[in-house]
């Protein structure tokens, strides 16, 4: 960008001819915000992302297990959307001045901004977790974990939410040389989902040989493995999949927060701010009936599109529109099979288990199509038919058939 200016240098950044919308983050919310702002017209759109890639986080378990390539889990955002991308971390957002401060101490001027920085792992919630547990939140995490799995005989996944279930099932199905344990403090897997989904997921986890430890608290994680609250020791590679937490306060210290997420108005402006909007995991979204919405790729995509359009409206003095967000369902894609629901209708029993990966592929295709059209959607779909296990381990095809 030609108008990055050192923070301490000239106070008058060069103005672009059109009002500028800056999107912080190139994930699900950021990518849709960028495309929507550009389609709204009359604005220059810039995305700032700390690594410049769009990550397909629901594909990370497949990468860690060796079923998918790392390139299946990320694409350069510029290639997906044609929008200009600045590779930098944003360290401060200044609503009053209309400025973003980047991690190289330069600033970027904006008429409207959309913060879509996602969420992160709640490190440190169990002693030793931040030092010794692997996480699965970025494509690099997935690659690191895959390398560790090449040397491990026992995988200990802490947390049986969607990520934990996906990872345990993918690894157990593909690697018959690794014993997989899934440890969950609640009495069932997928505790946030309806009972029926838990039962279908439990059946599949048993089928691929995952050992479940339900109602089990993890007391400590160390170099060798973990210790449960009851004093039982399990040795192996520990992955922390115990839930994600947003840290909206890092960029928006004045924003009111709900569980670490920024409170937003109906048009997705951060409460109390003039030209900063927030979308995705970092914002406390509600559905059309006012019910809190979970952190998910589908909600982030919907909210991002509204926020991008509204940011363009704010930058050009037009009226904004309220967001009408809907949770349409949930897919927990475990590779060959999965569990999920379309609205309240459960999937994961009998033949419907095989529909989940297909539906997930359809959702991915729709996401990519909305960003860049059909050709791009085809080019960036994960290569499900390629030989994909590249860990050196022998795939256990019986377990997934
Ligand atoms: C392993 C895993 C599996 C998942 N599976 C599913 C699933 O099956 N279905 C589902 O609906 N959801 C799933 N989710 C949740 C879903 O991926 C998230 O809810 C979604 O990615 C949120 O989108 P977002 O745009 O808010 O954040 P993200 O997609 O996380 O994007 C945030 C972006 O912001 C960038 N960024 C962060 N901080 C800064 C900064 N300071 N400056 C500049 N850039 C920054 C990051 O580099 C990143 O590109 C999964 C999540 C994980 C981790």
Q: Which regions contain 5 or more consecutive residues with pLDDT less than 50?
A: 384-401
Counting structural domains, the number is 2
Q: How does CATH name the architecture of the largest domain?
A: 3-Layer(bba) Sandwich
Strand content: 15-25%
Give the neighbour order of strands across the main sheet: 6-3-2-10-20
Query: How many individual β-strands?
Result: 24
CATH topology of the largest domain: FAD/NAD(P)-binding domain
Class of the largest domain, according to the CATH hierarchy? Answer: Alpha Beta
Q: Based on helices, strands and strand pairing, what is the structural class?
A: alpha/beta
Number of helices: 11
CATH superfamily of the largest domain: FAD/NAD(P)-binding domain
Overall description:
It is a single chain. The protein has eleven helices and 24 strands. Helix 1 runs parallel beside helix 8 and helix 9 crosses helix 10. The longest helix is centred in the C-terminal third of the chain and has 21 residues. The strands form seven sheets. It has a five-stranded parallel beta sheet, covered by helices on one side. It has two domains: 162 residues, FAD/NAD(P)-binding domain; 186 residues, FAD/NAD(P)-binding domain (3-Layer(bba) Sandwich). The C terminus is likely disordered. It starts with a strand and ends with a helix. By secondary structure, it is of the alpha/beta class. Helices cover 29% and strands 23% of the residues. The protein binds flavin-adenine dinucleotide (FAD). Flavin-adenine dinucleotide binds next to helix 1, strand 3, helix 2, helix 6 and helix 8.
């Amino acid at each position: 960008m030609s108008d990055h200016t050192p923070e301490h240098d000239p106070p008058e950044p060069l103005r672009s001819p059109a009002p500028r919308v800056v999107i912080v983050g190139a994930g699900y919310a950021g990518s849709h915000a960028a495309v929507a702002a550009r389609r709204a017209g009359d604005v220059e759109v810039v995305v700032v992302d700390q690594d410049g890639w769009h990550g397909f986080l629901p594909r990370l378990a497949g990468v860690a297990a060796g079923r998918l390539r790392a390139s299946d889990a990320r694409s350069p955002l510029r290639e997906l959307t044609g929008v200009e991308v600045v590779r930098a971390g944003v360290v401060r957002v200044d609503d009053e001045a209309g400025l973003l401060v980047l991690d190289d101490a330069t600033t970027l001027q904006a008429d409207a901004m959309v913060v879509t920085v996602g969420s992160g792992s709640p490190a440190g919630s169990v002693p030793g977790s931040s030092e010794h547990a692997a996480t699965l939140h970025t494509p690099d995490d997935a690659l690191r974990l895959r390398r560790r799995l090449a040397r491990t005989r026992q995988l200990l996944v802490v947390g049986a939410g969607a990520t934990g279930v996906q990872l345990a099932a993918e690894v157990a199905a593909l690697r018959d040389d690794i014993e997989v344990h899934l440890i969950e403090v609640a009495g069932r897997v997928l505790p946030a989902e309806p009972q029926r989904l838990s039962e279908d997921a439990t059946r599949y986890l048993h089928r691929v040989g995952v050992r479940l430890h339900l109602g089990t608290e993890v007391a400590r994680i160390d170099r060798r493995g973990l210790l449960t609250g009851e004093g039982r020791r399990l040795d192996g590679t520990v992955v922390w999949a115990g839930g994600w937490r947003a840290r909206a306060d890092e960029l928006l210290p004045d924003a009111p927060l709900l569980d670490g997420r920024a409170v937003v108005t109906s048009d997705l402006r951060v409460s109390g701010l003039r030209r900063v909007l927030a979308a995705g995991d970092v914002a406390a979204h509600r559905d059309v009936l006012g019910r809190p919405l979970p952190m998910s790729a589908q909600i982030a995509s919907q909210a991002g599109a509204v926020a991008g359009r509204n940011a363009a409206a704010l930058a050009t003095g037009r009226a904004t529109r309220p967001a009408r967000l809907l949770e349409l369902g949930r897919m927990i894609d475990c590779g060959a099979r999965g569990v999920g629901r379309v609205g309240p209708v459960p999937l994961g029993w009998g033949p419907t288990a095989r529909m989940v990966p297909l539906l997930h592929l359809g959702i991915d295709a729709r996401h990519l199509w909305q960003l860049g059209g059909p050709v791009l959607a085809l080019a960036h779909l994960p290569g499900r038919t390629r030989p994909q296990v590249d860990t050196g381990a022998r795939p256990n095809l019986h377990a997934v058939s």
